[in-house]
Protein 1
Amino acid sequence: MLVSAKEMLQKAKAGRYAVGQFNINNLEWTKAILQTAQELNSPVILGVSEGAGKYMCGFKTVADMVKAMIDGLGITVPVALHLDHGTYEGCYRCIEAGFSSIMFDGSHYPIAENVEKTKELVRVCAEKGLSLEAEVGAIGGEEDGVIGMGECADPNECKQIADLGVTMLAAGIGNIHGKYPENWQGLSFETLAAVSEKVGSMPLVLHGGTGIPADQIKKAISLGVSKINVNTECQLAFADATRKYIEAGKDLQGKGFDPRKLLAPGVEAIKATVKEKMELFGSVGKA
Ligand code: 13P
């Protein structure tokens, strides 16, 4: 069932667990994540970056594929199709294409402009029944080979954006996308606690879920995080399983070159990763 992320995240916040957002890249990725969610009776959010949307031939192709797959696979758990780190224009394109949820990442704008654009999107999303994620405090990550440390959001700015009526809020708490560097200081729970106190019942989003130790994930959930984004970890698991298949020469045996066989170990690896995360986040059985 394709739904907005509002209800699933409000339930998660009240029940002190988190719903995973897993980014998709193609049909195999989407199918693996949907099947795992159904098997574990867990709500799920499919994340699509603008780059991945382009790769998959546009947001309409993605939305139509996801809707058809939910139907074709008989998926009954709540599924949100969400734009990840959307630009202002990207948000409108996803609304048009039939997404059920969007993220407007205005964190790189001055706060006044972030507020103004987020406010407008709050109104549009409310009209159309979509959930909206906003961001305060940029999330670090690798850019041109340099890993930027994550910023810590200003709790007052978080309140300002939360009060506009967004569905969920991503606040930078020292988290970064991709692998964490050796010298990473860990999540700033001080920032998270301060943001949580300011925004009350608003579900908080933790980006950069790959590589955050389990104890820090649990603590973040206890302090109000209700949505956790995971992308790189599924990519690493897929690549690793595919490499092993090829290195073992399995593509050269019988019809091992058939893409349905060649991609199968990678798909199983994505499923195992998603399952592990859903268990850690506490969303199993919460559909
Ligand atoms: P990772 O790739 O570090 O898991 O981050 C995913 C993410 O936050 C997507 O917005």
Protein 2
Amino acid sequence: NSIRVFAPATVANVACGFDIFGFAVDSPGDEIVLRKRDKPGVEIIDIIGDEGRLPREAMRNTAGIAIQTFLQHIGSEQGIEVTLHKQMPLGSGLGSSAASAVAGVFAINELMGRPLKTMDLLPFAMEGERLACGSAHADNVAPSLLGGFVVIRSYNPLDVIRVNTPDGMHCTIVHPDIEVNTKDARFILKNEVSMKNTITQMGNVAGMIAGLMKPDYDLISRSMVDVIIEPVRSILIPEFNEVKQAALDSGALGCSISGSGPSMFALSRDAETAQRVGLAMQAGFLAVGITSELYVSEI
Ligand code: HSE
């Protein structure tokens, strides 16, 4: 009658793949507990770890809305009590809203006897994203739900592909102690992209996938370049260029903004490099008095 589910944080965009690339990490992540009850309706009983900042009303909460739309879809009036354990920072660029929505919809599907396949849960988790930041992008929810590195080839119809990554490849995430709202970070983007930048970006997207699949580390490294989004958004992150350079100087294959920021991520061939890269990135932020959290994870 009850279930506990963990859903991981994710790095969206992965430099060149705005709204189409994302991968999951081992930690951090969110945990949700759902309990069946007799009274119909979805009720959020408690949220732990958000310092009271997230909406408690189910239809205004990313997990709540994902659960509610799922129940409507399967035609169930089952009453549900929700307890959410936020175990990652809000507004961090680590897919916090996505992890809650994914945990919620995965949990309710299990609790109801698994009426839908995992892949078919995506649209419900995307509703959570629409609520949280005004756009139903899938590059956080898809990797959080499916694990690994994911490509959103198409949104309409939804076409999601899992891509293998080289053995031992590690991700470094550094979350500086500042907040960037995804809605704002999307608002500042230009609506038009030049032909020249489109061609460069398409080359990098193709190169990235080929690099991961071959695998070819130099190709991955050359492809981790974003000429469209990063130049605009990096102004929201103090010391962005210095921190990125510190990562590259320490042996990272590439470094960019995680999702809409302010977290920055880097990819490395192995765990030791990823750890060294993380310390160098943290030192870059600390040089201007910004403290940060470091997460290193195999991808
Ligand atoms: N692709 C989205 C963006 C991810 O960059 O706005 C947000 O986490």
